[in-house]
From TrEMBL:
Known catalytic reactions: a sn-glycero-3-phosphodiester + H2O = an alcohol + sn-glycerol 3-phosphate + H(+)
Gene3D superfamilies from the UniProt entry: Phosphatidylinositol (PI) phosphodiesterase
Domain of life of the source: Eukaryota
Enzyme Commission code(s) on record: 3.1.4.46
Source species: Escallonia herrerae
Protein's recorded name: glycerophosphodiester phosphodiesterase
Length: 796
C-alpha cells in the first residue's frame, strides 16, 4: 500500500504521506488509511485545481517602479501562506507558491536543533506555533535570550528527527482557521528548496533565511553562519537577514557574492545585541549599515507611522534616504486580518499600494502573511488608477460609500461617485410631514443619534419590525434634521470600527437632493428602494409610490434613457405599480437566503421584476466554520429567465469574508464575478472599482498572475473529518409563495395635523436594530465575535 501511494502521490506531498506512514505503519487500521487517502486526494485537488496558475502566454506590460533598481517590488511570504495555514508548514509554502507571483520569495526563520540543523519557525518558543507540548509534556525549559528569561519548548533541546517525525504545527493567530492544526509536520530549508526525490529537477524557489537569535545560539555553541556555509553544497539562500550586526558582519566575509545581506530592524526601543544601541538610534546611520548590508528590513510603521488612534501620519523619508545610501528597503508586518489604519477602509491591497504606488517612493519588497494579496497589489492593482473598467457588471452603492461615511448622507454619496460607483442608491423614508429622504431604514436608532435625544419617542410597529424603534414617520423633517447621522459597523460586537473621525459627518439628503446629485454628477444610474409602502398608505396616509413617481418626473428621469433607474422592493405589489414605466428596471429584493430558483418560480419572478437582489449566501453556500461548501445555480437559473442578478452586501472587513477568500475582498469579487453576477452592491465601491479596472478581472487575459475565484470544498478537503465544522441548517429554494404579496391598500385619508398611529409607545430604553430572519446571519455574527475578541491581545 505504501509503495502504491508513494508512486501515485504528487512528489510535493511526500512528506505528508511519510507523516501518516510513520504514524500508522504496522497497524491494521483501515480508518487511518482511508483518512490518509481522502486527504491526499483533496491535497492534490487543492494544488492542481484550486490554486494552480496557468502558464502565461504573454508577458504583462512592464511597469516603471520607484524601487532602488527600478524593478517591481518583491513579495516575500513569511513562513509561506501563514495567513491561512500554520506558519512554515508544507502547505503554507506550497500554497504560497501557487497563489503568489512567479518570483515569490519564501521566508524561513531559522531555529536550531540539538545537532545544529535548522527548522523554519519564527518564534524561538516552539509551543507557540506547534503541538510540541503535547508530544513532550516535560520538555519545558527556561533560557536567557538576549537578556530576557524565556520559558517554553526550544528546538535546540530536540533532534531534527524528533521534531520532524513527532511534532505537528498549529495556527498561532487565533482569528485564523484552526482546522489545519495537527496536520502538517515541521519544515526545513531543505524541504523548501531541494527536490523531493533524487534525480528530480531543483525547484525554482527563491529563499530568504532570517537569523533572529545568533548570539543566543552562539552562547550554546551553535553557529548559524556555519550551518548556512555548510549547506552551500545543497542550497544557497538568496537573502540572509538578521537583527544582529555582529552576525551580518561575520557573514560578510563568508557569504556567496550572490547573497544579499539584510539588516532587520526591530522596534525602535529594542536594543541591538552587538552594539547595545537602540534600533531607533541605528536608523540614523544608514551609511554605516551599507558597509555590511545591501538592504534593510523594517516594520512598516518605520515608513508610514500610525497614530495611537490608528490614523496614518506623514510618511517618513526613510525609503528615500536609504535609496540615496544605496540600500534596498523591505517592509514587514503585513497581514490582511490585522488591525490597520482607518485610512485604508479595511482594504488590505490599499495598504500595500501605499507602500509601492504612492507617486513618491516604493519599497523594494513586502514581507507578508498573505502573499496572494500582496501579489495582486503588485501585478494587478498598482499603476492602474486611471484605467477604465474592464468588467460590465455594475457597481451599486449600499447607502453610498457607507463603509467610509454614515450611510445615505451627502458625503457617502459623493464618495461613492468619486470611488467609481455606477449606481447610487436611496432607500426612501418619509417624515411625519411627508418629506421624502434617504436612509436605510425607517427606524432611526441605528443610523442616527436619535436614541440619545429622542428616546422618549420610541414605539413598537410590528408591521415593520419586531423591536421597538424611533421611526421617521413619527418625527417631522425639522426634528430629523436636529439629529446627526451615525457611522456604525454592521458587525455586531465587533471592535473593527469604521472610521471614527467620520462617525457623525455629513447631512441627511432629501429624495429631490439625491436625484439632483445623480443628475449633476451624471452617474450611470440610480436605485430607489421602497419599503413599508402598505403600512405608510394604510396607517400614515402616505402614497410613497406616487411621491417617488412625482420626484422622478420632476427631476426628468421619467422620460430619459441616459441614466438607468432601478426601482427595488421586497414587495411584488410595489414593483407591479411601476409596470407601466418601461424605462425603469424593477428589482425584487429577496432578503432571505435561497438555495435554488426552479424554472417555474424564476418565470414568476419575471412577471414582477427585471432583476433580483440576493445575498452572497444565495450564491456561495457555507458551513458553520466560515468555509465555502458549494455554489448554487441561482444566478444561472435567473439568467435563463432573462433576469439580472445583483448580490449584496460586500464589505472589506475580514470578518465578513469566508476563510476561502483569504481575508481578501478581491478574492470574493473574483469569485462572484466568475458566477456572472450583474452587479455588486457594496459598502466600499472603491475596492470594487479597483478590481473591475484591473486587467486581472478579465478572465480572457493571459497574464503572469490572476486573481482566481475560489473552488468551494477544496480547503475543507484537507480537514480531518473529526474536526470538520458542522453544516448549517438547509437553505430552502425560492417558492412561488415567497413572491406574491397582497395588493397595496388604499391610501388612508388622514389629517396631517393629527395623524393616528397604531404604534405602541415603549419604555425609554435603547431599541435594538432590525434583525434578519435568516439563520446564516447567526454564523456571520459568530465569526465577527470570534475573530475580533482576541485582536487586541494578538496585535497589541
Amino acid at each position: 500500500m505504501w509503495e502504491t501511494l508513494r508512486k501515485h502521490a504528487s512528489l510535493r506531498l511526500r512528506s505528508k504521506v511519510l507523516q501518516y506512514f510513520v504514524k500508522i505503519e504496522g497497524k491494521d487500521n483501515g480508518q487511518d488509511w482511508e483518512k490518509m487517502i481522502r486527504q491526499l486526494f483533496f491535497v492534490f485537488l487543492f494544488i492542481h485545481s484550486t490554486l494552480a496558475k496557468k502558464e502565461p502566454a504573454v508577458k504583462a506590460t512592464d511597469k516603471k517602479w520607484l524601487t532602488l533598481n527600478g524593478g517591481s517590488p518583491a513579495v516575500i511570504a513569511r513562513g509561506g501562506f501563514s495567513g491561512l495555514f500554520p506558519e512554515s508548514s508544507q502547505f503554507a509554502y506550497e500554497s504560497a507558491s501557487q497563489t503568489g507571483l512567479p518570483d515569490l520569495i519564501m521566508f524561513c526563520d531559522l531555529q536550531f536543533t540539538r545537532e545544529q540543523l535548522a527548522v523554519c519557525q519564527s518564534d524561538i518558543r516552539l509551543d507557540n506555533s506547534t503541538l510540541i507540548a503535547d508530544v513532550f509534556p516535560k520538555g519545558q525549559k527556561t533560557y536567557n535570550v538576549n537578556g530576557q528569561d524565556v520559558k517554553g519548548w526550544f528546538a535546540m533541546d530536540r533532534t531534527i528527527d524528533e521534531l520532524k517525525m513527532n511534532v505537528t504545527l498549529k495556527q498561532n493567530i487565533l482569528s485564523r482557521p484552526s482546522v489545519f492544526d495537527g496536520i502538517f509536520g515541521m519544515f526545513t530549508p531543505d524541504d523548501i528548496v531541494l527536490p523531493k526525490n533524487e534525480g528530480d529537477p531543483k525547484p525554482n524557489v527563491s529563499l530568504w533565511v532570517n537569523v533572529e537569535y545568533d548570539m543566543f545560539y552562539n552562547q550554546h555553541k551553535m553557529s548559524a553562519a556555519n550551518y548556512i556555509e555548510n549547506s552551500a553544497g545543497w542550497w544557497v539562500p538568496n537573502y540572509i537577514s538578521s537583527p544582529e550586526i555582529g552576525f551580518l558582519k561575520a557573514m560578510g566575509s563568508r557569504k556567496n557574492k550572490s547573497i544579499k545581506l539584510i539588516f532587520r530592524f526591530l522596534s525602535k526601543d529594542a536594543v541591538e545585541p552587538t552594539t547595545k544601541e537602540k534600533y531607533g538610534a541605528i536608523l540614523g546611520k544608514l551609511s554605516t549599515i551599507k558597509s555590511f548590508a545591501s538592504g534593510i528590513l523594517v516594520p512598516k510603521e518605520y515608513i508610514w507611522p500610525v497614530s495611537k488612534d490608528f490614523y496614518l501620519e506623514s510618511a517618513t523619508t526613510l525609503v528615500a534616504d536609504a535609496h540615496k545610501a544605496g540600500l534596498e528597503v523591505y517592509a514587514s508586518g503585513f497581514a490582511n486580518d490585522a488591525i490597520m489604519a482607518y485610512n485604508y477602509s479595511y482594504d488590505p491591497a490599499a495598504e500595500y499600494l501605499n507602500f509601492i504606488d504612492n507617486g513618491q517612493f516604493s519599497v523594494d519588497g513586502l514581507l507578508t502573511d498573505f502573499p496572494p494579496t500582496a501579489s495582486e497589489a503588485v501585478a494587478c492593482l498598482a499603476q492602474n488608477q486611471n484605467a477604465t473598467k474592464v468588467m460590465k457588471s455594475l457597481i451599486i452603492s449600499h447607502n453610498g460609500a457607507s463603509g467610509d461615511y454614515p450611510g445615505s448622507t451627502d458625503l457617502a454619496y459623493q464618495k461613492a461617485i468619486d470611488d467609481g460607483a455606477d449606481i447610487i442608491d436611496c432607500s426612501v423614508q418619509l417624515s411625519k410631514d411627508g418629506v421624502a429622504f434617504c436612509l436605510e431604514t425607517a427606524d432611526l436608532t441605528g443610523k442616527t443619534t436619535a436614541v440619545t435625544t429622542l428616546v422618549d419617542r420610541a414605539s413598537t410597529v410590528p408591521e415593520i419590525q419586531p423591536n421597538s424603534g424611533i421611526f421617521s414617520f413619527d418625527l417631522t423633517w425639522s426634528e430629523i434634521q436636529t439629529l446627526k447621522p451615525q457611522l456604525v459597523s454592521p458587525f455586531s460586537n465587533s471592535s473593527l470600527l469604521r472610521n471614527p473621525a467620520n462617525k457623525n459627518k455629513g447631512k441627511f439628503v432629501t429624495l429631490s437632493e439625491f436625484l439632483e446629485l445623480a443628475k449633476t454628477k451624471a452617474t450611470t444610474g440610480i436605485l430607489i428602494n421602497l419599503d413599508n409602502a402598505p403600512y405608510l398608505a394604510s396607517k400614515k396616509g402616505f402614497d410613497v409610490i406616487k411621491i417617488v413617481r412625482d420626484a422622478l418626473t420632476n427631476a426628468t428621469f421619467e422620460k430619459q434613457s441616459t441614466q438607468k433607474v432601478l426601482i427595488q422592493s421586497e414587495d411584488s405589489s410595489v414593483l407591479s405599480a411601476f409596470k407601466d414605466s418601461p424605462t425603469y428596471q424593477r428589482v425584487l429584493k429577496i432578503e432571505n437566503l435561497i438555495s435554488d430558483a426552479p424554472k417555474k418560480v424564476a418565470a414568476d419572478v419575471k412577471k414582477y421584476a427585471d432583476a433580483i437582489h440576493i445575498r452572497r449566501g444565495s450564491i456561495v453556500s457555507e458551513n458553520a466554520g466560515f468555509f465555502a461548501t458549494g455554489f448554487t445555480k441561482v444566478t444561472q437559473e435567473m439568467h435563463a429567465a432573462n433576469i439580472s442578478v445583483y448580490v449584496s452586501t460586500l464589505a472589506n472587513e475580514f470578518v465578513s469574508l469566508l476563510f476561502d477568500y483569504f481575508s481578501d475582498p478581491y478574492s470574493e469579487l473574483a469569485t462572484l464575478a466568475a458566477q456572472n453576477v450583474d452587479g455588486f452592491i457594496t459598502d466600499h465601491p472603491a475596492s470594487a472599482h479597483a478590481y473591475m479596472r484591473s486587467p486581472c478581472s478579465n478572465p480572457d487575459a493571459k497574464l503572469p498572475f490572476s486573481i482566481s475565484p475560489v473552488k468551494p470544498g477544496a480547503l475543507l478537503g484537507l480537514v480531518d473529518p473529526e474536526a470538520m465544522p458542522p453544516a448549517l441548517p438547509p437553505v430552502p429554494a425560492l417558492e412561488e409563495a415567497d413572491l406574491v404579496d397582497p395588493p397595496l391598500p388604499a391610501t388612508a385619508n388622514i389629517s396631517s395635523s393629527n395623524p393616528p398611529s397604531n404604534s405602541t409607545p415603549t419604555p425609554a430604553t435603547a431599541p435594538s436594530p432590525k434583525s434578519s430572519s435568516s439563520v446564516n446571519n447567526v454564523a456571520s455574527a459568530c465569526r465577527s465575535v470570534l475573530a475580533v475578541m482576541l485582536l487586541g491581545l494578538l496585535y497589541n
